[in-house]
Write a structure and sequence with these properties.
This protein has 232 residues and is of the alpha+beta class. The chain contains five helices and eight strands. The protein has two domains: 57 residues; 141 residues, no CATH class. It is elongated.
C-alpha cells in the first residue's frame, strides 16, 4: 500500500512539473512523450504493487476467533508467525527455536518462552520466575503458588503436589520458603493429560547455582518436541 501511495504522489508531482513548463510546441511534444512515459511507468508500478498486495493477501494470517486455545491466545501447532501475531508486544528474544516474552500471570511478572520444533510448530511453553529481583524464599513460594493457581484455573485442579527433601536441615527451617531458599527442599507440581488430553504440565521450585527459580513447562501430547531441548 505504501508503494502504491508513493507512486501516485510521484505521478502527480511529475504531471504538475510538466504542466508548468509546457508553453511551446516543442515543449508540448516533449511533455506529451515524457508524460506518456510517466503514465506507463506509473501503470507498471501500480501493477507491481497490486501483485505485491495480492501476495500479501495470500500470506495473510487467518485465525479462527472461536478456536479453543492452549496457551494464552495460541494453540499447539501454531507457527512462529502466528504466535508473534497473537502477542501484543514484541518478543524480548527471537532466536533459534524460541520466542521469549515478558508477561504477567495472576499479577506476577514471568518470562514466557514459546518453543517450536523443526517443523515450525508450537510444541512447548515455559513460564519461569526467579529471585533476581531480590525476592526471598517465602515470596518465591507465594509467586509459585500464584502461577500454579492460575494454571489450575485454566487447566483444572486435578494436579499433584510433591516435594523432595535434600537435607535434614530442612526440619530446622521456619517455613518451606526458607528451606527452598537454602536449597534444602524442592517443590514439584504436575498435571497429566489436561485440555482433553492435549497437554501435560510440570512445575518446579528449586534452587540452582544460588538462584531460586520457579518454572512451569507445558508440553503438547500430539506435537513432537524439538530434537534438542532449548535453554533459558
Amino acid at each position: 500500500m505504501k508503494k502504491r501511495i508513493m507512486a501516485l504522489i510521484l505521478s502527480a508531482l511529475l504531471c504538475l512539473s510538466f504542466a508548468a513548463c509546457g508553453n511551446s510546441e516543442n515543449s508540448k511534444e516533449n511533455t506529451d512523450i515524457e508524460s506518456k512515459q510517466v503514465v506507463e511507468s506509473t501503470a507498471e508500478n501500480n501493477e507491481e504493487t497490486l501483485s505485491s498486495e495480492d501476495e500479501s493477501s495470500e500470506n495473510a494470517i487467518n485465525i479462527d476467533p472461536n478456536r479453543e486455545t492452549d496457551i494464552r491466545n495460541t494453540c499447539w501447532g501454531d507457527s512462529r508467525e502466528v504466535v508473534r501475531s497473537l502477542e501484543s508486544d514484541s518478543p524480548k528474544l527471537d532466536e533459534g527455536n524460541m520466542l521469549v516474552y515478558d508477561v504477567f500471570v495472576d499479577g506476577v511478572k514471568v518470562t514466557l518462552a514459546y518453543v517450536f520444533n523443526e517443523q515450525n510448530q508450537l510444541c512447548e511453553a515455559l513460564y519461569t520466575v526467579d529471585d533476581s529481583d531480590g525476592s526471598k524464599g517465602t515470596t518465591m513460594v507465594e509467586k509459585f503458588a500464584h502461577i500454579g493457581g492460575a494454571i489450575a484455573q485454566k487447566y483444572g485442579n486435578d494436579y499433584k503436589v510433591d516435594s523432595k527433601k535434600l537435607s535434614s536441615l530442612a526440619d530446622y527451617c521456619d517455613d518451606v520458603g526458607e528451606a527452598v531458599e537454602l536449597g534444602y527442599i524442592e517443590v514439584y507440581e504436575s498435571w497429566n493429560y489436561v485440555k482433553g488430553g492435549r497437554c501435560t504440565i510440570k512445575g518446579s521450585l528449586t534452587r540452582k547455582n544460588y538462584t531460586v527459580t520457579g518454572s512451569f513447562l507445558l508440553s503438547s501430547t500430539s506435537i513432537s518436541s524439538p530434537k534438542s531441548e532449548p535453554g533459558i
